[in-house]
Design brief:
The structure is a homodimer of 409-residue chains.
Chain A: E1 2-6, H1 13-22, E2 26-30, H2 34-41, H3 53-64, E3 70-71, H4 78-88, E4 92-95, H5 102-105, H6 109-133, E5 138-144, E6 159-164, E7 167-172, H7 180-199, E8 202-208, E9 210-212, H8 236-245, E10 259-264, H9 265-277, E11 285-290, E12 293-296, H10 297-310, H11 337-341, H12 350-361, H13 365-370
Parallel strand pairs in A: 1-2, 1-4, 2-3, 4-5, 5-8, 8-11, 9-10
Antiparallel strand pairs in A: 6-7, 10-12
Helix pairs in contact in A: 4-6, 6-7, 8-10, 8-12, 10-12
């Protein structure tokens, strides 16, 4: 199968290229390398060093024996994207090229607006380019379980059948996102579903849980994927492991009783591959809740503490004020049958993954230590007066990589 | 009350300024005058001539005795918008400054992307500017009944209480829009609801039916509001009346059995005023379905034919292929209790409004006749291969007024 990965330089994109290639698929990709800029803008680095993209591509060619056609483009560059798709003629396109950070979107208006425009406009450009250049290709679009929020009913996979005043219908399950970023993902889901209805596109919309884990193939460090720990781009579990390896307290936000859906990076690769290898029918818009475990943030902190302990690292848990506006005690019961029906078998259990990740991080503890001031939360959701200039650290930072400054308009 | 109207030069905005001023409120406004450009881009004109904005403002001052502070700005110009709000210190802000056309958004990628960015980014800018400069002001944001689509259950006002697997919750009613434009309005609704939850903003989100009718105060033609009839900016009823006055057949799309919610321009003014004069509590996000009648498109065509007939104008109804992808036979039962509970009393019945509109249009029949080629639908929703260049009339037209070409970034 020919798979075009948008966002191929990212945390998930780079491992996915390798995973799919190892299964015999042919890969091309695009990336504007914005994630590297965003993390730099936040004053941080990937805990695990990553190679420049040209070195990555060299290593990929050396190890797989085939080259990966790469396009350094933003999806908003509509004509260049169209040419890339026309050249490659993909059977499937994976959309991983979005800004993935809730805190980044909550810094100020500039960042909220940038994240929504970058994500929504990029995905819309991709939809129209697919319609024109590869209308039969399958779109796998990455969403997030955060789109659903925490309703007081179970969370189905995208749709639910309900009765209302004596009539029944199958309706989209309402979304109740909790950040400007999460809303951008909801908007993308709506646009993708509409393109399926309108043009007969076949799409899988993946509502993914929080992904954790490192990707460090022993063959070559140029194959490593990034692992972020700063408050904006480090997800909870990865951040906790980085805190543990530098002897900082592990800091769940608030009471830590918030439940979240999770899966490892290896399981994410397995699930995305299952979706790709079992495409929908033309015009079908299907939603997969992609997760393995549902755990509280506090349980996660304890699992990280215990994994560190088993490797001889003493870690403590300390609570900090929750910078987010979110329910800390709530019902949480998401379905995840669709991927299991396709054969999803969770790989290593979470404690084993955590030990592996901590092992991968230990040689790089100094990188984390040198940027430890990037770990604590500074961006706050809470109501209150607008922050004065300089009151929120970095709030005056300009977005460094707005694709609307360039592009082909 | 001090009311800031974003989009004060528009079909609804200009009459609203006059209506509120007559009730003793103090008005300021902003408009980037894009609607004038869009209609010109489509090769059309307003059937009823409208004065340049400076002449409008002069007439407003002469007749009301007070001036209307006007800002020629796009809401995306965040710092200029902030200064305008800070200067005026409004008690309420009405957001009418969006691109309102489904067909315009369906022309091609450029137009779809422009409409979504213009609407979503403009509203987001307004939300952040209100938070900073007038956090206690009430936001009245114009949505559309088209956000709901045509579900097979009744349509409540924004939220519904449902049972799902034995648990109950009050959830946002799912949106199923039918154009890129309608989705942009859904995204705005989500962002406004989130701002209320996040910052304690009080907002009324108006899901408005199709508005019809002319606004031609006898005192001064400079007070007239626009009335569009081209396929993109002319709404169904107004377009039908323009067809009747030039002796063209009235053309409902498809079978005409689609049901739609409607209200007259005069009733829209009454409803928006009721919302403004009965503000929500801080943090409250309330949804009003703003409509008077539910009629099929075919019934509307017949009402227009009969109104024309009563004025001695013989009109015929002809069907044309439906250019849209929409259900033509469907359940449609929207609630509209919230505004009635505040005292909404429909004014003139629809046949009387239609006769008044046709009377206002008759002196300008030549303007419509001169642009009659702009009436038939050319923009199509239907699946199929992407149109070749030039195949869809005007598809190669560049968006003439992209605020991202300017602005303060």
């Amino acid at each position: 199968m020919r798979v075009f990965i948008a966002g191929v330089d990212g945390y998930l994109g780079w491992p996915l290229a390798q995973h799919l290639s190892a299964r015999g698929h042919v890969i091309a990709g695009a990336d504007a390398l914005l994630r590297r800029n965003w993390v730099a803008e936040r004053g941080s680095v990937s805990a695990i060093p990553i190679a420049p993209v040209d070195e990555r591509l060299t290593a990929y060619r050396e190890l797989s024996g085939s080259s990966l056609p790469f396009h350094a483009l933003n999806l908003r560059d509509h004509s260049a994207l169209g040419r890339a798709l026309a050249d490659f003629a993909p059977d499937a396109v994976v959309q991983l090229a979005e800004c993935p950070s809730a805190p980044y979107s909550m810094i100020d208006f500039r960042h909220a607006d940038f994240v929504q425009r970058n994500n929504v406009s990029g995905t819309l450009s991709l939809l129209f380019a697919m319609r024109e250049h590869c209308p039969d290709a399958h779109l796998v679009k990455l969403g997030t379980m955060g789109e659903y929020g925490t309703p007081d009913v179970d969370i189905p996979e995208g749709f639910f059948e309900v009765e209302f005043r004596g009539r029944r219908d199958r309706l989209p399950f309402p979304r109740q996102a909790g950040s400007w970023y999460h809303w951008s993902k909801v908007f993308d889901s709506h646009n993708v579903a509409f393109a399926c209805r309108l043009w007969g596109l076949g799409a899988t919309d993946v509502m993914q849980g929080i992904v954790y884990g490192s990707w460090c193939p022993p063959a070559d460090p140029r194959l490593n994927s990034r692992l972020d720990f700063d408050e904006a781009f480090g997800t909870a579990v990865n951040r906790f492991c980085c805190q543990a390896v530098i002897g900082h307290p592990i800091t769940p936000y608030g009471s830590g009783t918030q439940s979240r859906a999770l899966l490892s990076l290896a399981d994410s690769m397995q699930c995305l591959t299952l979706a790709l290898e079992h495409p929908p029918t033309p015009g079908e818009y299907r939603v997969f809740n992609q997760l393995r475990d549902v755990l509280s943030i506090k349980q996660l902190a304890e699992l990280v503490r215990d994994a560190a302990d088993s490797l001889g690292i003493t870690a403590h848990i300390a609570t900090v004020d929750n910078p987010r506006s979110e329910a800390e005690a709530h019902h949480y019961s998401p379905d995840s049958e669709n991927l299991r029906a396709l054969g999803f078998k969770p790989s290593a259990p979470i404690d084993e993954e955590l030990r592996r990740m901590i092992g991968d991080l230990l040689p790089h503890a100094d990188r984390v230590k040198a940027h430890a001031d990037r770990l604590p939360p500074t961006v706050r959701w809470h109501p209150g007066p607008a922050p004065a200039a300089g009151e929120v650290p970095d709030s005056s930072t300009q977005v460094t990589s707005d694709p609307w400054q360039e592009g082909d308009r």
